[in-house]
Amino acid sequence: DEAPPPQPDFTMKGRSAKKLLRQVDAWHGHLTRVRDVVFQSWQTSGVRPYELEEELPELGPVRWTVQELLSSWELAAEGTALDHCVVSYSDQCADGQTAIWSIGLQREGEETRENVLTVAVDVGKRAITQARGRFNMLPGQAPRSAQAQKVARGRYMQMLNRSDHVLRLWMERERLRRDD
I need a surface site. Which of 7, 83, 124, 174 has the fewest CB within 10 A? Predict the structure, then answer.
């Protein structure tokens, strides 16, 4: 199968050999989980992307982005980044029933965007049907699984909780409602 690169902006800048090897191991794990995924791509849902720049006390200046995922490979990469199964929505996205969006942030001076929250939109109803973070965590709620509790000890929980604010601003601008 031929597909676009999963990380088109990948760079070695700022990466140690140890970190790169960890990422290669994670990528190999990702490949074993998504090897049965058939590559599909689809057109945008018509909902507009969103950006917000702000300064957060705990993170400094950040740029939030809300971007639509337009292929099964992008869904697989999102699922790998956040340890959930969003790739299973591939057929619904290809049929135009569902649009999947990624909310993430990029901190000033950093090369990469951090995925924080995945959002499913029912295109016909213009309604949010799900919004999940790593390990299917929900903004503003205590983590349930041991994996999620471990992640919550770091700065991720702060980002996840703030992502709900970004989601609400985007929903208001795009006149989306919540159905989750």
Answer: 124
| pLDDT tens-digit map of 133-177 | 998 888 887 767 676 677 667 788 889 999 999 999 999 999 999
Displacement of CA 6 from its chain's centroid (Å) = 13
Residue 117: which of 83, 82, 87 has the closest Cα?
82
Neighbours of 102 (CB within 10 A): 23
Within a 10 A sphere around the Cβ of 60, how many other Cβ atoms?
A: 10
Residue with structure tokens 């909310």? 103
Q: Residues 48, 54, 59, 61: is their CA dihedral positive or negative?
A: positive
Distance of alpha carbon 106 from alpha carbon 65, whole angstroms:
8
Reported in sequence order, the residue ranges of the chain that DSSP labels E, i.e. its strands, are: 50-56, 60-69, 98-107, 114-122, 127-132, 177-178
Q: How many CB atoms lie within 10 A of CB 135?
A: 18
Q: How far is CA 174 from CA 9, 103, 115, 136, 163, in A?
A: 28, 15, 21, 24, 16
Structure confidence by residue, pLDDT tens digits, 50-99: 999 999 888 899 999 999 999 999 999 999 999 888 998 999 999 999 99
